[in-house]
Here is the input.
Amino acid sequence: MTPPPQDRPGGAIGQPMNRVDGPAKVTGRATYAAEHPLPNLAHAVLVTSAIPHGRVRRIDTTAALAVPGVLTVLTHQSPGVTLRPVEAPYPKGPAGSGLLPLQSDEILQRGQVVAVVVADTLEQAEHAATLIEPEYEAAPFIGTLAESLTSDREDLRAPVEQADYTRGEPEQAYRAAEVQLDLTYTTPQEQHNPLELHGTLAVWESTTRLTVYEPSQWILAPQHTLAHHFGLDPEAVRVVSPYIGGGFGSKAATWAHLPLAALAARVVQRPVKLARSRAQEFAGVGYRPATKQRYQVGATQDGRVTSVLLHADSQAGMHNDFPEQVVNITRMLYDVPHMRTAQRLARTHAGEGIMMRAPGEASGSFALESAMDELAYAVGLDPLEVRLRNYAETEPESGLPFSSKLLRECYAQAAQRFGWARRTPTPGSMRDGDTLIGWGMASVTYPVYASAATARARLFADGRAEIEAGSQDIGTGTYSILTQIAADGLGVAPAQVRVFLGDTRYPKNAYSGGSRTAASVGDAVMAASLAVRQDLALLAVHDPASPLHGLTPEALEMRAGHLYAWADPARGEALSVILERAGRDHLEAYREVLPVGGERKNLQEMMSAKNASVPADAGGYARHSFGAIFVEVRVDPDFMTPRVSRMVGVYDVGRVLNHKTARSQLIGGMIWGVSMALHEQTDVDPTTGLVLNDNLAEYHVPVNADIGEVDVTLLDVPDPHASHLGVRGAGELGTVSTAAAVANAVYHATGKRIRDLPVSIDKLLSPEDR
Here is the structure.
């Protein structure tokens, strides 16, 4: 049977359907990883290092072991704690860094685990943990990006080879430019802080079979990591993760608590729950690396960029090479004939950096879009006009055509909805009474990542349907959109579909990151659903007793549990009748789907927990989502307190599967960008190297009162070169460039250019730009 037209009236795809998992979440019926009720459950608590670098000279566990209810205390000296090092699944966490927990007395990062206390109750374990006071031999440490860059230690620097890029003659073009700008921007270390803490519930079903309940953005990663650590067959490790309370990238890797929970469960021979505290979320589970970006921009007096020289530094741990690839967005967004980009890692004892919502683009767009704004003021042009004059019709780096690019339409609609034409260009010229008003804007883009995917569909005689996919819903609405896709593919109502996710027993899939899940897993669900419907049609047309006998499957339609002829809707019969005559109670199909431009190896890589991503330029097209963000800020002229009063975003994300969940994702991303602009930074004590604001009272994120009006428009134009359903991701796009638009609006309001995030009162009160 041919795929159903996606614009058919009454179809589920595209409808603003409520989240199917919403009732379970608001009533408490949704069971998160740490909430699974297991009999005879023991509790584990981590003891983390009080220094970021050095060694454990001595660790006395006697007092802790004497606490009633304590079952064991694990340290690097304990027998049976050896973990086999592995080449980590992608994305790399500690399993791929060489820094496995409790394997030696060496301390190489803040928050490193030095002991695990296991007890009958959480309270007993927490109390016993306070009685462990290791003696340390401290060593000099590098706590921040700035300290790393000012150090004379060359071993702290490492090139990011994929960032090195040159086109044209950038130095010569810069020297010859009529307008020359030399600008440096910085972004701070930021923490993911999902509402659900990281943690693991581990139970050994036998000496060779392990089950873990782990909030994971990629359930194959803990499965393969634990199999390597303990010498098990990967299929003997089951990972269960049906609901995830946010991850934002931090739950795509495997961290120390995962193998330690399994170790503890093996030692005490009981199920063990190990959950991090909120303070422990600030070290040991990743962060967005701090960056420093120097832009040298050459341009003509009429605002055409002729040359860009970009050198970036990004923070990293001592034992991982995760690059916050800030240079990529600069290489593709504008039509710049001469360009050179370079980036290097600057190592610190902060631990492993990891992806965080819109990795690379979030930090890179702040610098790029701030620089474009500065250029507009330097040449006396409207910031939107400067972007239009440098519009790239084809992808500048590869020369490929874009699979779809509606950025001009985004600019036009967003500007109209915002009222940009009423802007007066002079900084400080717009007021509401005494309050300073500032308007800023920025271009938005994010690459399309796609992966191989698999799914299984079942259709029962009573009209019920089931979908199984070993993917994850990290709070984005995956349960809902897969329900809608399956409903249209099978020809049943969404209420008849039940989706099962988050279990390694289900068909394997890639990680939920890079905004890939909707397109990748959605394609597989549609393929499996269509295969089931095709099998049903074949049963009918080949059955002489069926009124549909002799027709072709393509001539049939399935709706509301009935199969009928397109040309004669009265000619048909119920699904249950067809299956009863065939002696079947259900039909089932499993499908493996390669992304557009993908190869068979992508599926094989995914099955073995390797990186299964297809490049954004696969299939002969450059594939990106686009958008435009316009922001209004209000600044108190006496106290210089900036507040975002209004945001308008228009986004081109391909076909929209669910307008409600997609809009929710973009609103969340825009708010995240406001947080990046005005609130977030990790403060490190220069004396101890530890995080000072390791709590949600002092690590600031926006609350409802910080966010004004948010207006989001989705263009909803399918992109057939991005995925088989024409879908592109939306989850990370909203974060990109929002911080720049806010900072640009602050400049328009105050005349103060803040190049170091976050924009804060002290910087606005400073006599100099910062």
Q: What stands out?
A: Residues 1-7 have pLDDT under 50 and may be disordered. The chain has three domains: 33-140+193-282, 383-448+617-765, 451-607.
